[in-house]
Amino acid sequence: MSADQVIMVGGGIGGLGAALMLAREGVKVRVLERAPEFGEVGAGLQLAPNITRMLDEVGVLEKILPMSVKPRRLVFMNAKTGEELSHLDLQDAERRYGGPYIVLHRSDLLNALLEAAQAEENITLHTDHKVTDIEDTSDGVVVRTADGDEYTGQLLLGADGLHSVVRKEIADDEPVPSGYVAYRGAVPVEDVDRRMGMEDVVVWMGPGLHLVQYPVRAGKLYNQVAVFRSQEFLDGKEDWGTPEELDRTYADMCEPVRVAIPSLHRINRWPMADRNPLPTWTKGRISLLGDAAHAMLQYLAQGAGQSLLDGAALARALPTLGNGQWDGDALAGALRQYESERVAAAGAVQSTARVWGDIWHVDSYVPMVLRDEAFRRRDTYDYHLVDWLYGPVRAGADDGADDGAESAAEVPTPAHA
Ligand SMILES: Cc1cc2nc3c(=O)[nH]c(=O)nc-3n(C[C@H](O)[C@H](O)[C@H](O)COP(=O)(O)OP(=O)(O)OC[C@H]3O[C@@H](n4cnc5c(N)ncnc54)[C@H](O)[C@@H]3O)c2cc1C
What we know:
Elements: E1 6-9, H1 13-24, E2 29-32, E3 44-47, H2 49-57, H3 61-64, E4 73-78, E5 84-89, H4 90-97, E6 102-105, H5 106-118, E7 123-126, E8 131-136, E9 141-145, E10 150-153, E11 155-158, E12 176-188, E13 200-206, E14 209-216, E15 221-229, H6 231-234, H7 243-250, H8 255-258, E16 270-274, E17 286-288, H9 291-294, H10 303-317, H11 328-360, H12 365-377, H13 384-390, H14 404-407
Flavin-adenine dinucleotide is lined by residues 9-15, 32-35, 45-46, 130-131, 159-161, 165, 182, 184, 225, 270, 290-291, 298, 301-305, 307.
């Protein structure tokens, strides 16, 4: 049996984050990444207090804060009328939840994780290693790559994203296409015709579309994500969500939204898909994390953050097994502990993200009027809709609104709607 305890398939934010957190608890991890180098797409990422609190505990937050922006507000706008409907005060949210809300470039997070992983002697990193074959031999796992390399270990973790090959060992399902497509990218701030300030995350909600804007890399770059429901997809066209359709879809929106669209990169587009929640992520000595376990639509801006929470939960569960050969029953117990922390919690975020998308994208008149009215009536300091996600609420930080941890069950969050 090899010295590896964990073989991690995939070195994205989820895989590298989990490898790092496990290694720091003394677990030996080999990461196999199929790409020629570790990297991320050139776009931004939001990390909410439920994630930054944990990143602070594992010493990663201080590494990424200098490249991040702490926005003042998360603002919801009507993309057609230009009306500001509601906002979250993110400084107040930081006090309430004990962690900042930050936005940053994906590469800045990935590179911070990579640098920390490279410094860990318990981690071995490989690129150009595409895993094609997996075997659970009951006292271990064997993994083979496209180039014919073979590795053995005691546990295989699939962190290989939306189209995970590892997930096929656990579930017989496929990604669920949403019919929405995203264009995104972070560009120098001076290249954007921008009508909103640099201090906010702005979400423009429109009929079958939304645009998100925020600064990254300490304010040097501006990130934009334009998403829309593709009629070309509904019409069954093979090439759907084209740049021409992007322009057509946004042509009707208010001026600050329209002027943002030309600065979006046109070369890449991302057809949006998620997965249905699974009741278990584990089979024998194989388990999942990140998008491989719980790919979600991005409307709660939680996918990468949730993958980091998976890593933290694994790092609590696995080190209890010690340094020797991991007994199968003990490993099963540790993975049950991991799952009890994470499966239902991540599943709720997956399901809620779908509902949240439906609310943002309503496209007939009456539902739109009702949505806007509900947003307008929301008090800035009413945290009902996010306590369950960003909480628990810090002692003494509650302003009289419901306490997140205790009241999550009685609050009508979208998850329960
Ligand atoms: C438009 C958009 C906006 C988003 N915004 C946010 C946000 O603001 N906040 C947030 O938290 N999340 C956000 N997300 C979600 C986030 O991007 C993902 O949840 C996150 O990147 C998942 O990380 P991962 O490591 O699990 O998977 P991935 O990033 O997909 O990484 C998987 C890795 O596995 C490798 N791999 C795949 N197959 C193999 C194989 N066979 N062998 C070896 N390696 C393999 C891949 O090359 C890749 O490096 C957004 C997503 C989208 C699409």
